[in-house]
């Protein structure tokens, strides 16, 4: 399954960090697409961040290529935003149980249909409570009653909030793939990155010291004093 993700979603992405493409819900989409082969219907209620996340461009590319039709109902509810955007996202259909946006995605493979896949999208709207969103879903009752908007992805595989191509003409901040490329910065990094934040950071001095002590003991090193 991971190899299939590497050869499809990850291979089609322009992002350098694609670890989110191995999330459980992305694995489920990849598995189901392979499972139905060239004919069938898939429907998932999942994290909706794939709709516009930069590192999900490879997934968006493959969904349009692999399926005859894709219907994406964006239920919003992203609690990881702030200010006015947070108020616009407002209620999550799963209540306080999740902080991520939610989407209902219906994917159809029809071998009788030729040509590129079609993409249909509906945004539930701004400033809606959980109860208001659930009522809207209930009132629609059928996929046929949803006022779908047909989207045409751009060459960067953006579905919504499509980027301005004028930015492509700007000088890049950095480019590790081409040492001869003219960039604003020659040296850059992700900064302080432990790749093990759960072990290396804590609000509690004692909890952090205990974590470090257990890690050192597990590695068979001599005990050191945590300052």
Commentary on this structure:
- By secondary structure, this protein is an alpha+beta fold.
- The protein has seven helices and five strands.
- The protein has a five-stranded mixed β-sheet with strand order 1-3-2-4-5, with helices on one face.
- The longest helix is centred in the C-terminal third of the chain and has 14 residues, at 205-218.
- The protein is globular.
- The chain starts with a helix and ends in a 9-residue tail after the last helix.
- The relative contact order is 0.11.
Highlighted features:
227 residues, alpha+beta, five-stranded mixed beta sheet, 30% helix, 15% strand, globular
Unreliable parts = none
Total strand count, please?
A: 5
Taken in chain order, the helices and strands follow as HHEHEHEEHEHH
The biggest sheet, with number of strands, parallel, antiparallel or mixed sense and barrel status, is:
5 strands, mixed
Query: Any idea what the radius of gyration is?
Result: 22 Å
Termini distance?
44 Å
Considering DSSP H and I runs of 4 or more, what fraction of the residues is helical?
25-40%
Oligomeric state of this protein: single chain
What overall geometry do the principal axes of the alpha carbons give?
Answer: globular
Strand order of the largest sheet: 1-3-2-4-5
Q: Structural class, please?
A: alpha+beta
By DSSP (H or I, 4+ residues per run), the number of helices equals 7
Mean pLDDT: 92
Q: Beta fraction of the residues?
A: 5-15%
């Amino acid at each position: 399954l991971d190899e299939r993700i590497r050869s499809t979603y990850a291979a089609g992405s322009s992002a350098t960090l694609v670890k989110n493409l191995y999330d459980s819900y992305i694995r489920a989409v990849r598995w189901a697409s392979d499972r139905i082969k060239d004919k069938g219907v898939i429907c998932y209620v999942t994290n909706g961040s794939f709709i516009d996340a930069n590192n999900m461009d490879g997934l968006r590319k493959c969904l349009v290529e692999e399926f005859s039709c894709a219907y994406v109902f964006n239920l919003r509810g992203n609690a990881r935003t702030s200010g006015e955007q947070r108020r616009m996202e407002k209620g999550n259909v799963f209540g306080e149980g999740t902080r991520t946006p939610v989407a209902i995605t219906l994917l159809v493979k029809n071998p009788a249909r030729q040509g590129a896949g079609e993409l249909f999208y509906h945004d539930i709207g701004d400033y809606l409570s959980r109860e208001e969103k659930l009522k809207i879903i209930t009132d629609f009752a059928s996929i046929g009653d949803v006022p779908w908007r047909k989207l045409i992805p751009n060459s960067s595989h953006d579905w919504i909030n499509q980027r301005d191509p004028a930015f492509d003409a700007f000088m890049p901040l950095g480019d590790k793939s081409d040492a001869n490329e003219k960039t604003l910065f020659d040296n850059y990094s992700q900064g302080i990155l432990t790749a093990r934040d759960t072990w290396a950071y804590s609000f509690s001095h004692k909890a952090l010291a205990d974590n470090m002590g257990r890690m050192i003991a597990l590695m068979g090193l001599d005990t050191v004093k945590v300052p």
